[in-house]
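Researcher: Next entry in the queue.
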Amino acid sequence: MSWTLDNEENRFEIPNAEKLRQYLHEFHQHAQQKPVIVTLNAPDKSCLAIGLGRDLSVLNYIAPGGWPALHVVGDEANDGVIDYMCFGQFSQIPARNTIPIDRAIEAAVEFFNSGKLAEALQWEND
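Model: Structure for this entry, 126 residues:
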């Protein structure tokens, strides 16, 4: 199995980090009016969900078999919520669990390159 990126409509094979970065930036631009969550699926069956279409993004990680499940922690003082569509379902994400979109995209590329979560980010159990 190879790396794939899923959005609400399609699944895309990801051959390299630059193609992943390109897709994420393109999807982010297209999602400006309707922010969405896409998933980056690893060959080991783990996945990283990424919020696109807003200045702040969410990152959720699910290990093979479903555990551990982790989410990124951003500004813990941010007490609002941020709305996304996630594969046809409306989802509200606590704003404290968001980071700037550029950092999220780079964390996704790091996950693609290493198979591991970005150590520079703070993660907590879902």
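Model: The mean pLDDT is 94.
Researcher: Noted, moving on.
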